[in-house]
Amino acid sequence: MKIFQYILGIVFSIGMAFFNCYSTMAATKTISDTILPVELTLVYNKLSDNTIELTASLLTKINDVTTPLVNKDISFSFAGDSTKKIGLIKTNIDGKAILQISPNYILPTKVDGSIKYLVSFDGDELYSNSIAEITIKDIHIELNLIKTDSSKSVEVIVTKDSIGQRVPVKQIEVFLGVKRMLSLLRIGENTTTDDFGKVIIDFPNDLPGDSIGNLTVLAKIQDDELYGNVEKSVITNWGLPVSFNSEELPPSLYSDAAPLWMIIAVIVLLGGAWIHFLIVIYLIIKMKSAGKKIIKKTQETEIVIE
Amino acid sequence: MDKDNYPILTRFVPYIGKATKKWYFWVIILVLIAIIGLYALIRQIIDGQIITGMRDNAVWGIYTANFIFFLGISYAGALIGSILHLGRFNWGKPYLRMLELMTIAGLIVGAPYILFCLGRLDRIHYLFIYGRIQSPITWDVIAITTDVFFCLTYIFLTHIRDFALLRDSTNINIPKWRKKAYKFFSFGYKDLPQQTRYLKLTQDIMAAIIIPTSIIAYSLLSWLFAMSLRSGWHSSIFGPYFVLTAVYSGISLLIILMWIYRKNYKLEDIITKKHFNYLGFALLVTALFYGYFTFSEYITDWYNSQKTTSLLFEKLFNFNEYGWLFWFSTITGIGLPVFILGIPWFRSIRSMVFVSGLILLALWVKRYLLVVPTLLTPYIPIQDNRTDWINYKATWVEWALTFAGIAIFLLIFILGNKYAPIIPVSEFNEQTDEKPEIFRKTKD
What residue in B sits closest to A270 (Cα-Cα)? Predict the structure, then answer.
């Protein structure tokens, strides 16, 4: 049996060696012959605390499989009449470079209220260079929680900067939801802003919150061509308090005393069995004495006959 | 009792009478093996368990595998024997004495093995003094003790008529003390109708108690494992799985015993091809059920992909660890019997006996795989990776005691045959085609 194992091992090893050689040669050929094109994309997110987050993704296709490029320098800039470089970030394991711009930073906004963001990858000996840009108009989401005697409602006001003042953003779809463990739970329907840039919805009374009823209400504009992704969230105690009892239950039979049902079951089972056992012993004794009686009778009869 | 009513008895007279050289030879060999086992046990008691392969992680080893294996045989003997008795199966009568011996030998040999696993044997009485009724170990102690009492009583009852027959036989050359022993153990039985009625009633009662007792006792033994949360043990089907495996091993051993006695005692007219066919069919059905239970057990464990369960499976499937044993027990315990017994071309008395032997081996290995790999895959990782802590290897002490157990098991059969016929002779004058009612007084 060992011989078979050895033969199988040798055949397998030779096969693996050939495969490795072939793969290495093929890979070398690909690397040395061509420079791969890359795809650079830029996503704009405005977070709840007004921080602007720019996410650049650098991808390429190797053998028709989309692959993130890791540890590559991505340059972030404001573009416009002149380009102002604001950061150089390396891509992470997912091929993403993320730059956050503080709310206090003064943005180079144009007259029409728009800002142009630009990301670039200079390329190297293996991958081509690439540029991506995005033009965003900065908007503001105001999230108000209104509580009256019997009802709760959420008011969202979306505005944008226009010549030194804020004007409402009309007819824009706003997502309204509550953060759950893994995703967002949508609340309310028809959440498109009116002519005043407003959306008002009733807030449900039966949503579970944390141990003191806190939950996070969130308003979000998603993937808009003009405004990008903008969100605003508020923590409120409008949820139902849920008690998370983290105390571990002990294994059920680790108690000091056995449960009553178990004691009864043991008594019934053992009692039933041993009572039958005693009956058997009684019957055996009867069987023995029955034999003795017959012998005695026979002996008495024999004496009478004599 | 009139021995003329029991003509079969004369056929067993030579085996019950004076012992032959061959008989002494086997007895001496087996006693020698038992003595080696006794020496190993004394060494273990003096030196401690350090001379076994058991350590902090593998606190159980082949002793526990033997414990489960022999008790399984014992419970199977009691269970099958009681069912045949209560069912009034005339064709099952030749099996009865072998099943009774299996029961008693299995208990005598199997039960002490669990004591050999104890580090402090001197505290064994604490189990009775401080035993908690909610502990599965206490359940097991109660169940085994009860079962020992019941099985011994039942076997005594089934022997009374044969002992009475031997007591009254004049053509058997046996010493006086044996005659006295027969007289004592026949308990004044004279084959009187009243006595027969009492005796039958006691046998019926005991058989009826032994069926649930055996099932409960072996289920309790399985719960000793299943009540823990360990991967490979924590399973709801362990109770029925253990009982089925016990019956499976019992049928296998019965086939082997039938073949040996049929050949050596020339019982071809009593133990016929029909008897092998019946048991062969039972073996095939049990093999299929065993396969189903085994698959069900592994697939549910494998599918949940719990970390320790996955580690356990890696060990079981890895040919550098337990892979060979695992596939041997699976193929030999399930595939081979189904293949050989299911296809008529392969089916013969010899092939049945051959397969039965392999099944017994496979089921022992299965019990070993149940105990050792699980213990070596604890929830909390083994911190100190000493080789003998992360591996279990049985030492000569454990093997000596294992072979001693097998020797004592065989010795009980050899000695048992010397004191009572291997076929319950007294049962054979009652053989009628008409099957008595199991439930009497049933109204229309």
Answer: B146
